[in-house]
Amino acid sequence: MNKTIRIGGVPEHFNLPIHLAREHSSFDKRGINLEWTTFKGGTGQMTKALRNKEVDACILLTEGIITDIFRGNPSRIISIYVNTPLTWGIHTGSQNTLDNYSDIYSKKYGISRFGSGSHLMAIVDANSKGQKIDKEQFNIIKNLDGALASLTSLESDVFYWEKYTTKPYVDSGQLKRIGEYLTPWPCFVVAATNDILEREPDNIIRMLRVIHDSCDRFMRESTESMQLVSERYKQKLDDVERWYHSTEWAIHGWISDKMINSVIYNLKLAGILDKTAETPELIWKR
What we know:
There is one protein chain. By secondary structure, the protein is α/β, with parallel strands linked by helices. It has a 5-stranded mixed sheet with strand order 2-1-3-10-4, sandwiched between helices. It has a 5-stranded mixed sheet with strand order 7-6-8-5-9, sandwiched between helices. The chain folds into 2 domains: about 5-85 and about 185-270, Periplasmic binding protein-like II (D-Maltodextrin-Binding Protein, domain 2); about 85-180, D-Maltodextrin-Binding Protein, domain 2, CATH 3.40.190. It has helices at about 15-25, 25-30, 45-50, 60-70, 115-130, 145-150, 165-170, 195-200, 200-220, 220-230, 235-245, 255-270; strands spanning about 5-10, 30-40, 55-60, 75-80, 85-95, 110, 140, 160, 175-180, 190-195. Helix 1 packs across helix 9, helix 4 (about 60-70) crosses helix 12 (about 255-270) and helix 10 crosses helix 11.
């Protein structure tokens, strides 16, 4: 009987290799019944689900899970998922008079939740430019649908979200993209609860092998992969090609201590983590 592992992620094209592996029964062949949960609320919603043991593992933003483990989340990073940085689009509503990236720092920011990527990267970006955002400037909008409504009604002025996910709304004129920010580290990791790592370490390794193999195949079968992304996520093929050729998925579980330390440095510099905080065990030691 296959062992059930519950995993979650955002409804974005980055996770297509996992969905394809499920469709091809690749997990089943390794003795894993992989149950997928979609989290429209992003990393903040997933860290909460890990804490509450609603899932066993998640694909989520590197900076988000590191921050939450520092704050007591009983989980570990078990693999990089996407090696390349994330390109954050900086958006405002089509009727908003805001037009310049340099003018955003006094405005109202829509964020999915405190501790989410849309929250953390706004702070890291501002800090890198010598700017500061006050807590009162943040407006919780839960997810992309909430952001669209909030930006359209002018309740929020600024919203950070993955550039290609929001591009259809930019193309349709519902949003304006007024800037971009590149995450200064690999964007997505796989994290799992300490509970599942203690109970099912061998099955977690089997799950990772399937994910890595599927990512490898997704990168090798480029023409088919790009076509699938275009069809399933309703994106223009030209946009998909640009995204695909700027993205590299991990095909092994190695995690760089230097990378982790760089993320911690930036989070402390931005005031997201206390500068005196001791670093907890972040990486699963097999």
